[in-house]
Amino acid sequence: MELDYVAIGMRIRRLRQERGLTQQALAELAGQEPSNISHIERGATKLSLPTLVSISNALSVTADELLCDSVAASRGVFEQELIRLVSDCTHPELKVITETVRTLKENLRQLRPKG
């Protein structure tokens, strides 16, 4: 499986923004150049393992959380993300989200190849 550098970059950007960090601040925390953070967030560069670890540490997340789009055994990361996404929803919002997910799941399963 290929690493999805665009997805990794998007996750890094989202996590950085959720923490209220600028690219400059993340770069300082991770021991990187701000331009390198910018390239990584756009998926324009392949990040090394040491860079991935330094960014993970700076954002206080596991490498799994950054790599989950490229790692087949990352179900738990997605489950936790769903829980986090709905944790502040109201009852009516949860009802709509649940029905939307149910319908989406049914439609996705209908698209599966029979065999």
Task: Describe this structure in a few short sentences.
The protein is mainly alpha-helical and 115 residues long. The protein has 7 helices and no strands.
Distance between the termini: 23 Å
Average pLDDT figure: 93
The oligomeric state of the chains shown is: single chain
Strand content: under 5%
Query: Unreliable segments (pLDDT under 50, ≥5 consecutive)?
Result: none
**Major beta-sheet overview:** none
**Count of DSSP-assigned helices:** 7
**What is the helix/strand order?**
HHHHHHH
What can you tell me about this protein's structure?
By secondary structure, the chain is mainly alpha-helical. The two termini are 23 Å apart. It contains 7 helices and no strands. The mean pLDDT is 93. The longest helix has 21 residues, at 91-111.
Topology summary:
Layout: H1 5-18, H2 23-30, H3 34-42, H4 49-59, H5 63-67, H6 75-86, H7 91-111
Relevant terms:
mainly alpha, 0% strand, single chain, 7 helices, 115 residues
